[in-house]
Amino acid sequence: MAVESAHFPDLKAVPHVDQVGVEERAQRFQKRSIKGPTKLSALKLAVTMLDITTLEGRDSQGKVRQMCAKAIHPLPEDPSVGPAAAVCVYPRLVRVAREAVGDSGVKVASVATAFPSGQSRLKERLAEISFAVGEGAGEIDMVISRGKFLRGEFRLIFDEIARCKEACGAAHLKVILETGELTTYDNVRRASELAMAAGADFIKTSTGKVSPAATLPVTLVMLEAIRDFHERTGRKVGMKPAGGISNAKLAIQYLVMLKETLGPDWLSNERFRFGASSLTNDLLMQIRKQQTGRYQSADYFTKD
Amino acid sequence: MPEGPAEGPAGAARAKAPKKTAKRDGKPAKVVKKTGAKGARKSPKGGKKMAPPAKRPAAKPKRGAPEAPAAKPAPVPPEAVAKPDDAERFDFVRGESYAPAPESTDHISLQDSYGLFIGGEWVKSRKRFQTTNPATEEVLAEVGEAGKGDVHRAVTAARDAFEGGWGDMPGRERGKYLFRLARLLQERAREFAVIESMDGGKPIRESRDIDLPLAAAHFFYYAGWADKLEYAFPGRDAYPLGVAGQIIPWNFPLLMAAWKLAPALACGNTVVLKPAETTPLTALKLAELVAEAEFPPGVVNIVTGAGETGQALVEHPDVDKIAFTGSTAVGKMIQKSLAGTEKRYTLELGGKAANIIFDDAPIDQAVEGIVNGIFFNQGHVCCAGSRLLVQESIADTIIRKLKARMETLVVGDPLDKNTDVGAINSREQLDRIRKLVKSGEKEGACLWQSGQDLPGKGFWFKPTIFTACAQSHRVVQEEIFGPVLAIQTFRTPEEAVEKANNTPYGLSGGVWTDKGSKIFEVSKGMRAGVMWANTFNKFDPASPFGGYKESGIGREGGLHGLMPYLDLE
Lengths: 304, 569
Fold this sequence. Notes:
The complex is a heterodimer. By secondary structure, chain A is α/β, with parallel strands linked by helices. Chain A has one domain: Aldolase class I (TIM Barrel, Alpha-Beta Barrel), CATH 3.20.20. Chain A is 47% helix and 11% strand. Chain A has helices at residues 19-30, 36-48, 61-72, 94-101, 122-135, 146-150, 154-168, 179-182, 185-197, 216-233, 248-262, 279-292; strands at 50-53, 86-89, 107-111, 139-143, 172-176, 202-204, 238-240, 274-276. The longest helix of chain B has 22 residues, at 204-225. Chain B has 2 domains: 125-349 and 555-568, Aldehyde Dehydrogenase, Chain A, domain 1 (3-Layer(aba) Sandwich), CATH 3.40.605.10; 354-540, Aldehyde Dehydrogenase, Chain A, domain 2, CATH 3.40.309. The two termini of chain B are 36 Å apart. Chain B is of the alpha/beta class. In chain B, helix 6 (204-225) runs parallel beside helix 8 and helix 12 packs across helix 13 (395-407). Chain B is built from 17 helices and 20 strands. In chain B, strand 12 (354-357), helix 12 and strand 13 form a beta-alpha-beta unit. The interface between A and B is medium-sized, with 33 and 37 residues.
């Protein structure tokens, strides 16, 4: 969506969220029993939705290349598994990642905008986006200014996101709300509306640096915001829960929630991603278990 | 609910004078000994009068799995034997549904035939009837139909047990039996949940997560009161009444048994309980646990049967108190037949609850609350939110979202762990639902049903809503007791309350708004025994439950639930 057509949302019309109700509803999804062929296809789907991520001070070029290799062929002996959706790195490593993924179809995402705090001037944040895009990033994960949001400066948040979207150019923009710092579901819902209206292609829960990171209820609130936004505008915004999704069982529960809230149109990596680092191997392990009936030792899965 | 006495003729032909065969005295009700936490449990006694129960090898597994002799299930993962086209059919993205996830039934033990549980023993009755699985129409077991003589025997056994020790037993000793029963029920929860779903048609998710935990919680809760009655009503002396006759419905068979038994026993009464004729199995299984917990014989008696059995119990002169849960029609008959007697009674009858949604409500959670209000247990809930009153300004949004949500409900096999809406309890109930839905269409309400396919066999009804309802429509006025919601709109809070109260019923209601003061304002105006705010169909043993007007009299649950079982002086 072009930025010019972005309209500041009517925040008074944003529905309230009842904490007890939304947590109860999220729990209901966890009661679904996903078995057999449904489970196997859900696991494989989850692998293709992975944004395999490394965001540490000690990240090196070697580490990023390894990770890219894993993203392209998650389970080397089984080509029906993967590839992952993207690798997600700091801007300085984008070029390495870009070269490593080549034309495999795996996208390169980069965090930008003074990740994870967002505490620098807009000018520098925009420059960081331009740098990352220039290095070859196809997707930008930005953070919002949570301090400003909590002060009620919604207009400013909206404008910042719109400017970032502009700076992305053709690159997709994922807007990280850092729900752990927004604390209430009402805030999460409102921030989601702002981000989508300002042009976000994805909305994303967390940086992974703040606890709590993604939870089912917080993701549900955002999925419901996406659903309502789609009904109003016809635009399909994507969703990315990130942080804390460390096992396959939980990942499947997210997918069940996605399927029953937004429907099949969102069941692809065009519109849903998992931001995770340790989830990959558990998914692979469960896929093997489904195929062979046996669990294999963790030693049979590469750690990259 | 087709429940309770006075369905059909009075059965005078069969009502002979009760034979004096009931085992009186025998053993003076053994009191304390060997109960309590450490008491070693014996396996359930089959009862001397009954041949050792022929156990079924195992209830038939549902999906045509080969009938293995239950010994060693091969550790082959289900997907290894899955048919190739299943991969497409149950694909997460493109598939038509989730792969079946049936709860296994090989761990349950059901006899082919059950007697009546009287005086601690299994007694055969002359007449018998069958109980079926409403999802498959298969016969599950044969149970006894208690005649007047059987009821008399049960009441006599209860009277003897009351006078033989239970009534005078110190509360802390009575409490031990109840705690023990509660623990046994928890231990066997899985088996009971499966049987509850097989016999009644409710989804295993509900019987597993709601019925069973709540039933055990009721026993725990009232076990705790047993030795504290003097503190429950300070300054007054509390005495048990004697023999309580209890008649329960088919919608929550085990949970209703727990609601009835727990306070009665905690207060020192003895009980004759009659479960509903379509769902007797979990009550009979509960009788096994009563025996296993070594309750003194006669403290709990369970007689199965239909309306006539219930009537015999209501009319028996030696019953001190009647507790009935069921339809308003039957409740009225009971009230008539008890008029002029000394018997005390509580009645928990029908309802037509209004769920009121204001425009400042948390919309998505309200939609979920509407779904829980009317589709919980297929709408077979006396306090179901069967009327929806929604503020005009958000009516279109709510209805659109409700329809979308209804499409995601999983309707089908009650034993599948993913099922949200199970089978209708009986053919009679299905006919009644169909009749009322037809009347709704004829009277001009606008019908909409979700698109799920229903299984070919068994009794099913699609989740249904009516829009454009008028207050005078039968679907608005009458209790349907099925998955059918009547939707109306309102403009002001006054109008909402007026419409909500414009019914002969008054059991429950719901209000949805983000504004606390509005919750209190509306609740104050509602004539309903239970009000839920921003939620629906929540139950807790500590919370009293009961109705206004034609929804009944008396309260069950909580401190209030003790009163109907006590003489307070």
